[in-house]
Structures are given as structure tokens and as C-alpha cells.
Automatic annotation (TrEMBL):
<dbReference type="InterPro" id="IPR012349">
    <property type="entry name" value="Split_barrel_FMN-bd"/>
</dbReference>
<dbReference type="GO" id="GO:0010181">
    <property type="term" value="F:FMN binding"/>
</dbReference>
<protein>
    <submittedName>
        <fullName>Flavin reductase (DIM6/NTAB) family NADH-FMN oxidoreductase RutF</fullName>
    </submittedName>
</protein>
<dbReference type="Pfam" id="PF01613">
    <property type="entry name" value="Flavin_Reduct"/>
</dbReference>
<feature type="domain" description="Flavin reductase like">
    <location>
        <begin position="12"/>
        <end position="152"/>
    </location>
</feature>
<dbReference type="InterPro" id="IPR002563">
    <property type="entry name" value="Flavin_Rdtase-like_dom"/>
</dbReference>
<keyword id="KW-0560">Oxidoreductase</keyword>
<dbReference type="GO" id="GO:0006208">
    <property type="term" value="P:pyrimidine nucleobase catabolic process"/>
</dbReference>
<dbReference type="InterPro" id="IPR050268">
    <property type="entry name" value="NADH-dep_flavin_reductase"/>
</dbReference>
<dbReference type="GO" id="GO:0042602">
    <property type="term" value="F:riboflavin reductase (NADPH) activity"/>
</dbReference>
Length: 183
């Protein structure tokens, strides 16, 4: 079956993700960042995470040999996501460098700082695994990405379905969530 790349992209866009900005030091010593939603946890022992980068991106050439920070964006940081996706729009607020000496963004939900571990061929992308050196949860709500749009978590996620189930309070809690558009 011939795969239509546009249709595949559309289908894969139904898998909802958070949004990160991957930052590292550029050749000139200035911080560089790019918006990435292809980020995933991989392993706890050793502690590994993965990002998938387009070979044509500047970041792809940089993090081959450099430590990097995964900045997990907060729900109000949609414009920052666009800023680091080729639509510069603002003065970026940087936080203190990570323990690896990598630049990191201020006001994010969390950050994870890594040193390069392995990289793998991913077709027109390269899969980079980083070994976690430092991580911190700063708190807040996540920015989400779904079918090409930014979203935020819905607020109707109160516990429900206790009914008369033997799995009632003290047992398993079922928490329903929803996504509402904000773009
Ligand atoms: C929501 C969103 C998610 C993105 N995810 C990725 C991704 O996972 N991998 C990637 O290589 N590019 C991704 N991009 C595109 C890059 O952010 C964009 O190509 C960026 O300009 C690359 O910057 P650079 O070439 O200066 O390093 C994404 C863009 C957006 C808006």
C-alpha cells in the first residue's frame, strides 16, 4: 500500500502530546532552541529520554555532541512554542543554566537536562537519546498539541463513577479528562 505522507501526518496528529522546546548552546555560544513534540520517556535505569529531530533542523546538527535541556511548556506558552518554531515574536526569558551548563527557559512546567547518550537513524529524522543529569518540576498546567492545534487540559476532570462499585473509595479511582481548544 502506498503511504501518502500528508495523510499519515494527519493520522499521527491524532496522538495528543505535550510540547517541549529543546535548548542547547549554539556554535557561537548563544542559546539555541527548537519546538519539539516528538519527545518521550524511555528508561529509568539508566535514566533516558528521546527526541526525534528533522535532519534539516539546525538543532539536529547541534545536539549530536552537546548536552541539551528539554523544556516542557506550560499552557500559557503557545507563543513561545511558535517563537521556537520559526516565528520569532518575543524577548525570551531564560532561567539559570542547568547543571549540565545548558540554557533553559523560564516559566516552564518542568525541565530535564541531558547529556548525549546514543543517536539512531530515523529516516528523515534522527532519534537522539539523552541521559538525564538533572530534572525539576516547576508546576502548572501543560500545553497540548493535537491535530495541528494547541490545546489545554479541560477542567472537567473531577473523580466520578463511584456508584455502588466494590472498587469505591479506597479502591481504584477513574478520572476522566477532556481537551478543549485554545488556538
Ligand atoms: C508544535 C510543534 C511541534 C514540533 N515538533 C517537532 C519535532 O518533534 N521534531 C522536529 O524536528 N521539529 C518539530 N517542529 C518544527 C521545529 O520546531 C522547527 O522546524 C524549528 O524551526 C527548527 O528550528 P531550527 O532549525 O532553528 O533548529 C515542531 C513545530 C511545532 C510548532
Amino acid at each position: 500500500m502506498a503511504i501518502d505522507p500528508r495523510e499519515l501526518r494527519q493520522c499521527l496528529g491524532h496522538f495528543t502530546t505535550g510540547v517541549t522546546v529543546i535548548t542547547c548552546n549554539g556554535e557561537d555560544g548563544e542559546p539555541h532552541g527548537a519546538t519539539v513534540n516528538a519527545f518521550t520517556a524511555v528508561s529509568l535505569d539508566p535514566p533516558l529520554v528521546l527526541v526525534s529531530l528533522d535532519r534539516r533542523s539546525r538543532l539536529c546538527g547541534l545536539i549530536d555532541s552537546r548536552p541539551f535541556t528539554v523544556n516542557v511548556l506550560e499552557s500559557h506558552q503557545k507563543d513561545l512554542a511558535l517563537h521556537f518554531a520559526g516565528k520569532p515574536s518575543q524577548q525570551v526569558r531564560w532561567g539559570p543554566d542547568s547543571a549540565c551548563g545548558t540554557p533553559r527557559l523560564d516559566g516552564t512546567l518542568a525541565h530535564v537536562a541531558c547529556v548525549p547518550w546514543r543517536s539512531y537513524d530515523g529516516g528523515d529524522h534522527v532519534l537522539y537519546l539523552g541521559e538525564v543529569q538533572e530534572f525539576l518540576i516547576h508546576g502548572g498546567q501543560p500545553l497540548l498539541f493535537h491535530t495541528g492545534k494547541f490545546h489545554h487540559l479541560g477542567d472537567d476532570h473531577s473523580p466520578l463513577l463511584w456508584d455502588d462499585s466494590v472498587d469505591g473509595p479506597g479502591g481504584v479511582t477513574f478520572v476522566a479528562g477532556s481537551i478543549t481548544g485554545s488556538s
